[in-house]
Write a structure and sequence with these properties.
The protein has 9 helices and 7 strands; from the N terminus they run βαβαβαβαβαβααβαα. It has helices spanning about 20-30, 50-55, 70-80, 100-110, 130-145, 160-165, 175-185, 210-225, 230-240, and strands at about 10-15, 35-40, 60-65, 85, 115, 155-160, 190-195. Strands 3-2-1-4-6-5-7 form a 7-stranded mixed beta sheet. It binds guanosine-5'-triphosphate (GTP) and magnesium ion.
Amino acid sequence: MTSKVDLISVVIPTLNEAGNILEAVTTIEKELAYPKEIIVVDGNSTDGTIEIVKDASFCRLIMEPRLGYGIALRTGIKNAKGNIIVMVDGDGTYEVRHINRLVERMIEKDADMVLGTRMYDPQKAMGLMNFIGNKVITFVYDFFYSQFLSDTQSGFRAISHEAIDNVELKEGDMAFATEMLVQFAKEGYNMVEIPTTYKARKYGKSKLKPFKSGIEIFSTMFKGFLNADTVRTCQKHWKENRFKR
Ligand SMILES: Nc1nc2c(ncn2[C@@H]2O[C@H](COP(=O)(O)OP(=O)(O)OP(=O)(O)O)[C@@H](O)[C@H]2O)c(=O)[nH]1
Ligand SMILES: [Mg+2]
């Protein structure tokens, strides 16, 4: 439960995002209306991302040479001082101007996590294969973990620091985002969504390897409910939380 804001730690993983990162961090610095720290976790970019972040004096740069989206986020979270963590990609695809809405909903709902869902985006900028993959993963996740999320692959989330410290997260790459949802459902943490938009990448390449990530995400979900008690526990938590959403 997060009922007040002391400090928000915005954690942004970057790997070769020189054409995207400055706009993302300056928008967050300007728009986020709460005490904040902006942490960029870079995986040894070679395209000038590091220099851009160093020049943006309001950012804290952490180097994480081990590759992987999950590893970068875990390192950022470990170094975060805020009671709320906002994670977002540094690739310019999320509407970071909506960051206050994530935090406001978190307080309003006393939530443990608020996700920005891209599924009600009128512009429909998400590629068809990513959209279908996301829908299938989300359907399986919601079914087994008793949730009603619409976009489990959203990387734009406000998270209670206390809650995330309380769960074990081991995934090193893209499945990290799903592992977090699995662990939060098991703990009975309250997760809600707000609509946000999705923009096509203007610079650089996606690091998502759909086949490898798909296998890792499905095995993360299946591993999670191998224990029959998990399904029952999640149903019980869902009933307890149903009026909070
Ligand atoms: N530090 C670090 N950051 C990474 C690594 N892999 C990806 N990232 C960053 O994590 C964010 C998400 O990666 P993306 O390549 O956008 O992957 P995605 O969002 O699943 O794919 P798209 O939907 O195509 O954008 C981006 O800001 C990347 O720069 C990594 O190994 N290390
Ligand atoms: Mg992305």
